[in-house]
Amino acid sequence: MTGLKLDESRVAVVTGGASGIGAAIVDELLARGVEVAVLDVDEAALRDLVDRVEAAGRRVRVYPCDVADWMAVEAAAADILADLGRVDVLCANAGVAGHRTPLWRQDPAEMERVLRVNVLGVTNAIRAFVPQMVERRAGHVAVTGSYLAFVTRSGGGNAAYASTKHADLAICEVLAEEFAHLDIPVGVSMVAPGPVATPLQATATTPADHADALPPAKKILDFVKASDVAAATILAIEEGRSSVLVDAATTEYVRLRLTARLESLTSA
Questions:
Q1: Rounded to whole angstroms, what are the CA distances from 12 to 37, 84, 87, 117, 139?
Q2: Where's the Ketoreductase domain (predicted)?
Q3: pLDDT tens across 65-109, in order?
Q4: CATH number at residue 86
Q5: Cα(208)–Cα(189) distance, rounded to whole angstroms?
Q6: For residue 45, what are the contacts with CB-CB under 8 A and spacing of at least 6?
Q7: Which residue, 11, 257, 225, 22, is CA-closest to 143?
Q8: pLDDT for the residue numbered 203
Q9: Annotated active-site positions, please?
Q10: pTM (2 decimals)?
Q11: Residue 253: inside a domain, yes or no?
Q12: Is the pLDDT of residue 208 over 60?
């Protein structure tokens, strides 16, 4: 898979780009002169992003949108393509975590929301923006995943989130296989950080009425910076990498867990 140089000739879409990792990706793209369109459900955060970017002498286009809603994504994509003409890079970054609680005590509405945003949000964005990449035979899709795409976290409590990241990895691998089979030169990357200090982490706490259900989460990995994830995303796009684990500690943790899983495999 060949890389895609990011410069002033490129147009990128970032979902969930108003805060956290998404906003850091926006900053990295703007620093390279890329024209950026941001989709986010949080309109106040979008206004803050515009103010911050304009104060730095740059420009960003924003489109309020719930990525879990296909019709909203389709409409936003139509507006973006009308405004900018094309999209070279899709950064499917939008995601939510949900509270940490045992699966059998998960709130059904919250679990559905996590599944819809983290999985349908990715596939909706791909369906909306990839067809014109296929038609032009150029582009790149970068999905913000997690180390939990490869393993699960000791202690549990996040079945919905972990399952969505496993699903996102499968989506990336299947999409890459489809491009390869059809000889379509569009790249696909998953960027898989360890825990990141963003507003998303605030929602991953144990609710007070479930505090007796699980022991406190043990510290396994140090937090990585959103800016480090953004830098890894740029690296994945420009170097055409299929997957990138952001830091050495996370990489080693995943390697050990996967090795243990392989060693436990048995046949009937």
A1: 6, 10, 6, 20, 10
A2: 10-199
A3: 999 999 999 999 999 999 999 999 999 999 999 888 899 999 999
A4: 3.40.50.720
A5: 38
A6: 18, 19
A7: 22
A8: 54
A9: 161
A10: 0.91
A11: yes
A12: no
Assign 207 a pLDDT band (cuts: 50, 70, 90): low
Mean pLDDT of the chain: 92
Predicted local distance difference test score (pLDDT) of residue 197: 80
Strand 61-64 versus strand 89-92 pairing type: unpaired
Is residue 101 within 8 A of residue 24, CB to CB? The reply is no
The structural domain count of the chain equals 1
Tokens of 24: 């850091």
What domain range includes position 113?
A: 11-204+217-261
Sign of CA dihedral 240, 242, 245, 251: negative
Distance between first and last Cα of the chain = 37
**Cα separation of 44 and 64, whole Å?**
10
Q: Say what the pLDDT of residue 218 is.
A: 67
Contact 118, 168 (CB under 8 A): yes
- Write a three-state SS string for the chain: CCCCCCCCCCEEEEECCCCHHHHHHHHHHHHCCCEEEEEECCHHHHHHHHHHHHHCCCCCEEEECCCCCHHHHHHHHHHHHHHHCCCCEEEECCCCCCCCCCHHHCCHHHHHHHHHHHHHHHHHHHHHHHHHHHHHCCEEEEEECCHHHCCCCCCCCCHHHHHHHHHHHHHHHHHHHHHHHCCCCEEEEEEECCCECCHHHHCCCCCHHHCCCCCCCCCCCCCECHHHHHHHHHHHHHHCCCEEECCHHHHHHHHHHHHHHHHHCCCC
Provide, rounded to the nearest whole percent, the portion of the chain with pLDDT above 90.
79
pLDDT (tens digit per residue) in 142-175: 999 999 999 988 788 889 999 999 999 999 999 9
Give domain status of residue 5, yes or no: no
